[in-house]
Amino acid sequence: MHGPMSLGWLLVALCAVTGGYCLLRMRSAVEEQRRAAGGEALMGFGMAAMAVPAAVVAPPRWAWLAYTAVFGAAAARALWAARTGPHHLHHLVGALAMAYMAAVMAASPGGGHGGTGLPLVTGVLLVYFAGYVLWAGSRLIPVPTGTGMGTAGAGVPLSGPSGWGDRPELARACRLSMGIGMLAMLLAV
Q1: Helix axis angle, 168-188 to 31-50, nearest 10°
Q2: Contact at 8 Å (CB) between 67 and 107?
Q3: Whole-number pLDDT of residue 136
Q4: Which regions in the chain score pLDDT beneath 70?
Q5: Which of 16, 22, 135, 171 is the most buried (most CB within 10 A)?
């Protein structure tokens, strides 16, 4: 990723912490949450690896090709899962965006950071993720209830006995963080 190294490291940290939390969410008792958390952990750690500032390490071309293959496989899995419900389509777009960015980097001179993507594809992805960030952020705003207690959005109480892996407001914040990270990475393409 181009830009100041401090911003690159902040993005790496954000994505790595998000990926780590998604690993915690994989301990959920709900199978659908575990599956979603696994895909989101892959995205978080993949984004962290791809966001390492170019001044520190410029991965060889084969690494970008490996990222392209991994996220291409994740996109195929998300496409297969999308047949059961539209909520998997966001994972499909995210995996395709990661595969696209990795392919751009693989095709760039020297096979490293500093690739130039297709303006139309990059623009469409930027618009999608900007909209997603706004939507996901709005879902984190507490909605007042008749009891005076706020909710984490969608009627989910802020308090409760659920474990770290089953906290819907934290899962939403995780997705919001990854959306912001994706925007930052796409701006660098």
Answers
A1: 30
A2: no
A3: 92
A4: 1-3, 110-115, 143-166
A5: 22
Least Cα distance to 15 among 33, 54, 41, 53 occurs for 41
What is the distance between the alpha carbons of residues 60 and 27, in angstroms, rounded to a whole number? 35
The per-residue DSSP string of 92-158 comes to HHHHHHHHHHHHHHHHSGGGSS-----HHHHHHHHHHHHHHHHHHHHTTS----TTS--BSSTT-BS
For the chain, the structural domain boundaries read 5-188
**Residue bearing tokens 């914040």:** 173
The Cα–Cα gap between 167 and 119 comes to 38
103: Cα separation from own chain's centroid: 17
Q: Which pTM was predicted?
A: 0.81
Residue 27's contacts (CB-CB under 8 Å, 6 or more residues apart) are 34, 163, 165
Ordered DSSP codes for 12-60: HHHHHHHHHHHHHHTT-SSHHHHHHHHHHHHHHHHHHHHTS-TTT----
pLDDT at 36: 83
